[in-house]
Design goal:
4 copies of one chain form a homotetramer. With 112 residues, chain A is mostly helical. Helix content of chain A is 75%, strand content 0%.
């Protein structure tokens, strides 16, 4: 899946509707928080490990699409290279959580 | 940028650290909301259209990487095809906001 | 505990620091979402029913104070009477969730 | 307005409906984030300083009531004394943001 293609289509979609004026980074960050809240709402009262049904899957797909869409639009507006940002985060996390140490902590958690 | 490759690397990273046990859809939805809150915090007191500096760009890149990472992990756990979900959303939005109508509303907003 | 007294003290605190200029309803709604995200972060990887320790209690107290503070400031800016709003919500919820029906649903959930 | 009275009524309301089983601190923190997202949604595309109309006021009142209700329920479950928590936060903030320093920063912001 190619994020650049989605980005182009999103920019065109907004441009055609004169929506760019509303798409400040601050407003798009608000949109991301709003959509993340809507995704979370689906799981609000569900036990952590209930098998989810078709209805949950359908609603979650819609919210995750909104989140991805706003994340891409935000990155466009801020000139963020999402691929580079993710690769950098991988590097940070690999140093921050070395395999052996992380395994030990996970095991302890598991015994809570 | 290829989401499938990131997904594989993320799954391997979590597996190596025994972290899969924590990655229920509910917990990953919580993580998305937490990260969206951290992104929003950057803009909390900034005027809507202030030009952002290098520091804001750097912090925003980190948060957007976290959001993308959790969105991909969530989709893996829920068997959501992100590409399909985004394409479906495009279709919905193109019907919901026809160009002419959307332009009219945007214009009115603009005159507020 | 008297919300009006806290409200007065909060307004004075902001006024003394020339902070009122930043306290638009939109910005205060952002602050509430940011603080709710920080509260949620505490529980991000904790199992739902782990007994919480002193550290969790301490951090949760701080976040809940921030949430209450911003909720009061927001209400002041929007001329919302919090007491009236809560009493109205009670009425709505009592009609929406009659005791007998709600009990039945809770029982079914419980058997999941 | 007396938070203790609301707290008692909320506990009774939940108890009557067998809802206590769902009200873990983790779930109530989720509810707070969800409601904060709903409050934020109202302002998502509004310019920061638009005068708000009756409709915005009405919807904001409902969301702020939900936020206060969940904050009180969360505090009950965690044995948090909200009054004490707010007073402590006042003390922290008064030391963290001394009047003269805060004024200076606000003035600089204002000139952006």
């Amino acid at each position: 899946m190619d994020i650049e293609d989605i980005a182009k289509r999103l920019m065109k979609f907004a441009e055609d509707r004169y929506w760019e004026q509303f798409h400040s980074p601050k407003n798009l960050a608000i949109s991301l928080a709003v959509e993340a809240g809507e995704l979370l709402e689906i799981f609000q009262w569900l036990p952590e490990n209930t098998p989810y049904d078709e209805n949950v899957h359908e609603k979650a797909s819609e919210e995750i699409a909104d989140i991805l869409i706003y994340a891409i639009m935000f990155s466009q507006k801020m000139n963020i290279d999402m691929k580079k940002a993710v690769l950098k985060k991988f590097e940070v996390n690999e140093n921050k959580y070395p395999v052996d140490k992380a395994k030990g902590i996970a095991k302890k958690y598991n015994e809570l």
